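TA notes, week 10

Several of you asked for a full example with nothing omitted. So below is the full record: structure tokens for the whole chain, then the designed sequence directly under it. When grading your own attempts, check the secondary structure regions first.
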């Protein structure tokens, strides 16, 4: 089927980036959230990030204006009913995601494809709770979405070839590159990235280095664009911990044990940039 309209659930850091790239690629976007404040914040961020692209001459002012004009927002989830493609980018909690799909599905067209931007939860399990497991896929964008080239496409056990090929075409239309991953805990990117971040937190916890020396070592010694602790703050320490727990539980190997310091920061509410405190202080 041809995808023209996209319904995005969740206007947080992933949802607003996803809305940005789809609108810029010419899709009609409807962005839903339970908070008007989040929707307003998302629209002003999209405006700012598009402006950044205009000022760097990546897009024209007219491209920006038409992209902004293609995004609508709603507080009513079921308004997403007529969309050709749904991308769920809500909180990384399985019960929340399941409830969203359950509420949505009576309002959807039979041909609508359902996807989740989950970074680690089983696609097969999420799909099995919907009325269309063959039209369900993992559609995992990287942060910041307008900048990062990769999108992971994850097939559940029941996903059909037409759904997979349709989404491959969508990724191409966004000017991004798809990596196909099997449905195992945390897929490819986070299976590799999160243990590296967790190890950096252990390196801090054990006093091998401090925040500055750990980040500088990986930036200058391994050419990473951000140090692992800075990156953890950027992703959100709660998300990092949730992914480590999925790896630990799903693969039953102590090598994925979340560092106690990471757990402690999350318990303190020091979640990184979004709470203005993490391994760095942003206040
Ligand atoms: N929207 C649009 N453009 C943006 C942007 C945004 N939100 N953020 C940055 N940019 C653009 C800038 O305009 C700039 O564009 P040009 O190259 O055309 O000049 C470019 O990105 C670089 O930005 P800056 O110069 O401001 O800053 P920088 O050079 O320090 O790069 C960064 C910033 C792109 C975030 C870089 O530090 C980086 O790549 N960091 C690593 C990010 C990463 O690893 N992401 C993956 C996280 S894992 C994940 O997302 C999966 C998960 O499930 C947790």
């Amino acid at each position: 089927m041809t995808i023209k309209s996209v319904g995005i659930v969740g206007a947080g850091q992933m949802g607003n980036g996803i809305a940005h790239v789809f609108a810029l690629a010419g899709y009609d976007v409807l962005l839903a959230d339970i908070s008007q404040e989040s929707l307003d914040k998302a629209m002003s961020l999209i405006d700012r990030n598009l402006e950044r692209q205009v000022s760097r001459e990546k897009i024209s002012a007219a491209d920006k204006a038409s992209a902004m004009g293609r995004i609508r927002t709603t507080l009513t989830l079921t308004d997403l009913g007529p969309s050709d493609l749904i991308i769920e980018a809500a909180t990384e909690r399985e019960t929340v995601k399941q409830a969203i799909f359950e509420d949505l599905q009576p309002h959807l067209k039979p041909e609508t494809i359902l996807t989740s931007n989950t970074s680690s939860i089983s696609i097969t399990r999420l799909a099995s709770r919907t009325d269309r497991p063959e039209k369900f896929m993992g559609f995992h964008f990287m942060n910041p979405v307008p900048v990062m080239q990769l999108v992971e496409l994850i097939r559940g056990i029941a996903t059909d070839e037409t759904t997979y090929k349709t989404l491959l075409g969508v990724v191409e239309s966004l000017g991004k590159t798809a990596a196909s991953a099997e449905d195992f805990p945390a897929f490819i990117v986070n299976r590799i990235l999160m243990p590296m971040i967790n190890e950096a937190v252990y390196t801090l916890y054990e006093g091998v280095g401090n925040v500055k020396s750990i980040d500088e070592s990986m930036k200058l010694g391994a050419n990473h664009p951000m140090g692992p602790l800075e990156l953890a703050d950027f992703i959100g320490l709660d998300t990092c911990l949730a992914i480590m727990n999925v790896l630990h539980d799903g693969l039953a190997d102590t090598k994925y044990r979340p560092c106690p310091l990471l757990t402690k920061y999350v318990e303190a509410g020091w979640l990184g940039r979004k709470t203005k405190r993490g391994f760095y202080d942003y206040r």
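DSSP finds eleven helices and eight strands in the chain. Use that as a sanity check on your answer.
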